[in-house]
Specification:
alpha+beta, PH-domain like, five-stranded mixed β-sheet, four-stranded antiparallel β-sheet, 4 helices, transmembrane helix, membrane
């Protein structure tokens, strides 16, 4: 009886609903490895067979504070774990504490198993470069509009452009700052990518 209680205490679990329709995605950290159940599929991946983890910040319209962990197995298969769960048609609930605890414990167990997984955070380098290029083009266009509004003495238009630029910088700035591509170690998880 005590053995089964100790084993149950050693299991850390997390679940979320990726969509309104469908079953929950369930994950558990067991002594043997990462156990997962997604739809009709399931598996158990030993910690030393996990080849990569990418942590990122992925806001959506229904939830501006959403984080994601992409876990890759040595076979090339990949699963995603999100920090939010669909509750109703209009509500996506954050699960910050459970997500953070699960991801921190996953890293601790991988380190204990001697994992050599590649740990990265943010977007991929190509995607990040594309985001920066798009932002640079948008900045040039907005600056051109602002200069034009000031030249023709359209101060209301200039104020609107400045207000829109400030709102846009506030909304997109956090996404760009948090998702800068970088590597990290098992003992130094990126705090900006954990809720």
């Amino acid at each position: 009886m005590q053995g089964s209680e100790a084993e149950a205490a050693a299991v850390t679990s997390y679940a979320y609903k990726a969509s309104l329709i469908g079953s929950a995605h369930r994950f558990a950290l067991t002594e043997q490895g990462l156990s997962w159940h997604i739809g009709g599929r399931s598996g158990l991946w030993p910690y030393d067979e996990l080849s990569a983890i990418r942590l990122s910040f992925r806001p959506v319209s229904m939830q501006q504070h959403r984080f994601r962990a992409d876990i890759t197995h040595s076979s090339g298969r990949r699963i995603a774990i999100l920090s939010t769960s669909w509750q109703t048609a209009a509500l996506m609930a954050p699960q910050d504490n459970g997500f953070r605890a699960f991801i921190v414990e996953l890293h601790a167990r991988m380190a204990k198993a001697g994992s050599r997984a590649v740990l990265t955070s943010g977007l991929g380098r190509t995607a990040y470069a594309a985001v920066l290029a798009s932002l640079a083009m948008l900045t040039v266009a907005m600056a051109g509009l602002l200069i034009r509004a000031l030249v023709i003495d359209e101060f209301a238009g200039a104020l609107f452009i400045l207000g829109f630029a400030a709102l846009f910088a506030w909304q997109v700035g956090g996404f760009v700052r948090r998702n800068q591509p970088r590597s990290y170690g098992f003992d130094q998880l990126p705090r900006s990518l954990l809720p």
